[in-house]
Design goal:
The chain is mostly helical. Helix content is 83%, strand content 4%.
């Protein structure tokens, strides 16, 4: 009787998580698709001058939109089963990982852009050239496609509760599994987050030393994007570590089984959070646009992006003037 109750409890828990995840993903789709589409349309057709920050926001929106388009397939699979074949399972899994790496790389570049504008204003002028920005963006996309390749090799349809699901990764050995998980966490979170922390540490210290402190939405928006990304993707990497821990203990032990169960349940939560991260950024831009009299219109969103471009340009100019004055005084 006790075993039966435990099984029923586990089944009810999984069903509850499944229903909740489906609802959350449905709302994410309804918000994220029009939101990111609007951002892309505004930047491409409403803005003649695009700063590096705006170009990065454009590419971030493209990465988010591509992965959100796949949501109806995932929702159907969660509520029913995977009926789309192993090839599509690999392709859609690949797109999700492209979004993971692409998002964090473009967010990292936004932070580096702010870092250069405030700390190295002269050097930032070379970075802000259109041809340089295009080359850097192309390199980021190439790295994104490259780092996402391993998921194609291990992503497969597996049977869960007598139903096929695109939820499994099959490795040749524990060593291969640990290597892939560590690579994901290092490249997809630890290294970029370290760069973000260092950049904003220097920027915060420099801004506190400046006589003129610009009051604009640019810093607030970029920091908000960073925070949302951390909130949505940190749990995924935490459960990666839980999965790694399950491989380092004795196979079949209570500890191993518990860690595996935690990792499996966590995959539903972290999967939903990953999609949520792709739909929130447009809401941040809309919130920033509320202060404009035009309200929530495409012109207001365009004004936000134009203000971001102008504020970064002003910071570069002010810092260059300040640096030139200091050099002149030192020469005297």
């Amino acid at each position: 009787m006790e075993l039966s109750n435990n099984i029923n409890g586990t089944v009810n828990t999984v069903e509850g998580i499944t229903v909740t995840a489906s609802i959350v993903l449905g709302l994410t789709y309804l918000v994220g698709i029009p939101g990111n589409s609007l951002v892309i349309w505004v930047i491409l057709y409403k803005m003649k001058q695009r700063s590096p920050t705006v170009v990065l926001i454009l590419n971030l929106a493209v990465a988010d939109l591509v992965v959100l388009i796949t949501l109806p397939v995932w929702i159907y699979a969660i509520t029913n089963s995977w009926v789309f074949g192993n090839a599509l399972c690999k392709i859609l899994g690949y797109l999700i990982y492209c979004n993971l790496y692409g998002s964090v790389f473009f967010i990292m570049l936004m932070s580096l852009d702010r870092f250069l504008a405030v700390i190295y204003p002269f050097a930032s002028q070379n970075w802000r050239k259109k041809e340089v920005v295009c080359k850097v963006v192309s390199i980021v996309w190439a790295l994104t496609f490259l780092f996402a390749v391993p998921i194609i090799l291990v992503k497969n349809v597996i049977i869960i509760d007598d139903r096929p699901q695109c939820a499994g990764r099959q490795y040749d050995s524990n060593a291969q599994q640990i290597t892939c998980l560590i690579l994901e966490t290092l490249v997809g979170f630890v290294i970029p987050f370290s760069v973000l922390a260092i950049c904003y540490g220097f920027v915060a210290r420099k801004v506190n030393q400046m006589t003129f402190k610009s009051k604009n939405k640019t810093e607030m928006i970029i920091v908000s994007i960073v925070i949302i990304f951390i909130i949505c993707w940190l749990p995924y990497h935490v459960f990666n570590l839980v999965e790694i821990a399950s491989l380092t203990v004795e196979p079949g032990s209570d500890t191993s089984e518990t860690l595996i169960h935690i990792s499996e349940v966590g995959s539903y939560i972290t999967g939903a959070l990953a999609f949520i991260s792709s739909s929130i950024n447009p809401l941040l831009y809309a919130f920033a646009a509320r202060s404009f009299r035009s309200g929530f219109r495409t012109s207001a969103i365009a004004q936000v992006f134009e203000q971001m471009a102008q504020s970064t340009k002003d910071e570069c100019t002010l810092e260059r003037v300040s640096t030139t004055k200091m050099e002149s005084m030192e020469g005297l």
